[in-house]
Amino acid sequence: MIEARVARGAASSLVLNRSADVIAAHLEDAAHFPGGRADAFARPGTEADVAAVLTTATAILPIGAQSSLSGGATPHGGVILSTDRFAAIEPVDAEHVRVGAGVPLLVLQESLTRAHRWYPPVPTFTGACVGGVIATNEPPAFAMALITTTSEAAALALTADLRDASQMTWHTGDAHGIDVSAIEHMDGRCIGIVHEDGADLRNDITLAPDSQVVLFVHIELPRGSSATTLFDEVEHALDPGAADTPMTRLCRLLGRLGVLDRTELAMPGDTPRLSQFLALREAAPTGVNRRVGEAKRDIDPRIEKTAADMIVPFGRLAEMMRIYRDGYQRRGLDFAIWGHISDGNLHPNVLPRSYNDVAAGKEAILEFGREAARMGGCPLAEHGVGRNPVKQQLLLNMYGATGIAEMRAIKRALDPDGRLAPGVLFP
Ligand SMILES: Cc1cc2nc3c(=O)[nH]c(=O)nc-3n(C[C@H](O)[C@H](O)[C@H](O)COP(=O)(O)OP(=O)(O)OC[C@H]3O[C@@H](n4cnc5c(N)ncnc54)[C@H](O)[C@@H]3O)c2cc1C
Hints:
Elements: H1 20-24, E1 40-42, H2 47-56, E2 60-63, E3 79-82, E4 89-93, E5 96-99, H3 105-114, H4 130-136, E6 145-149, H5 152-172, E7 180-186, H6 188-196, H7 199-202, E8 213-219, H8 227-236, H9 246-256, E9 263-265, H10 271-298, E10 310-311, H11 317-330, E11 335-340, E12 345-350, H12 355-374, H13 389-414
Parallel strand pairs: 1-3, 2-3
Antiparallel strand pairs: 4-5, 6-8, 6-9, 7-8, 7-11, 10-12, 11-12
Helix pairs in contact: 6-10, 11-12, 12-13
This protein binds flavin-adenine dinucleotide.
């Protein structure tokens, strides 16, 4: 038995918008999952409005920014419930704010910056909304340095050293220690794509011709660190008498691994440069998605995004990377891999040239799922399950029919008529 309080706020005369144009603008999320359809679009402004939609509609899909990469924000009939009017940011006390579900991360971050506070999941995709981020359980990240390496092995070795150094800092609380919160990467095929698309030039980034991997290293620095002081620390980092600071230690570690000259830093406050790094990072998925869209248009309408999103313990990542490469290469597939390398969470994406490539890619992904689970990892790591049939199959493989039945029972207890996001997670 679930007891609920009365919805807050006054119910307005909320009108369900049935305009074809308005609905059409919300039929796709960033996964470009096909077949989006809806009967109406609602923009409630109070809890009472939401309650009114819940009691009348037969199917409801709440949406934030529709930046879902799993098709979870693609409607399949019923009412699309936008959260964009829940836009309030109310300070509770010095350490807490109450934030509306429809507040974009960028807006929240700007508001917190004024109070010298930080919301860890920023910046990832800063257009995502707080409600969407919570619903999809998005992980934290913070970007500052761009480093290229000449091999995947070198990228993994650097990532391992930065992880070890950061874990030491967290355990000891050393104020001078290296503190890297996340490292993302793109492989050689991604580099080829961003170069072909001109994203490096556009963002004023020169990648050395021998680069095989680009790393985006998210570094935490002491509060109040200024760009001027930090540049000074970088310049003198290798001097014997250099001050012992997190930046000095970082530069020394990068120097030891031979990548200091291949590193560019976007210092705190240098938002334009940081944005260019992030734009380069986003150019890989954007470039892949565009190519998939073109293949769908020009070669076969059944072609679709074919990608895994899996995590393994970091110590098994080198092995898992070999499995991704072997699995795709054995099937003659073109592919690009990027992701959260320091978490062991990668996105091996197929670049399909035919519908057969899509089918072969899906078969490879189910194989990867078994391997990830065998290594103590998870075949559904970051983007969730959504409406993707392969991901729904991976979920079933992971939890079995009994596990899925238990999940369905919980969903039924909260949503007895199956109105909330029907088809998301379970077919
Ligand atoms: C360029 C780009 C980069 C990205 N980078 C990352 C990344 O680094 N890390 C990462 O994890 N993800 C990333 N994503 C994916 C995406 O941004 C996240 O999944 C994000 O959390 C989705 O937020 P949203 O507001 O867009 O939610 P939507 O896409 O609108 O919704 C996602 C799901 O949550 C549900 N939902 C949304 N709001 C609510 C609510 N208020 N109450 C209940 N359910 C709700 C929806 O029904 C849907 O099933 C990226 C996406 C893009 C396009």
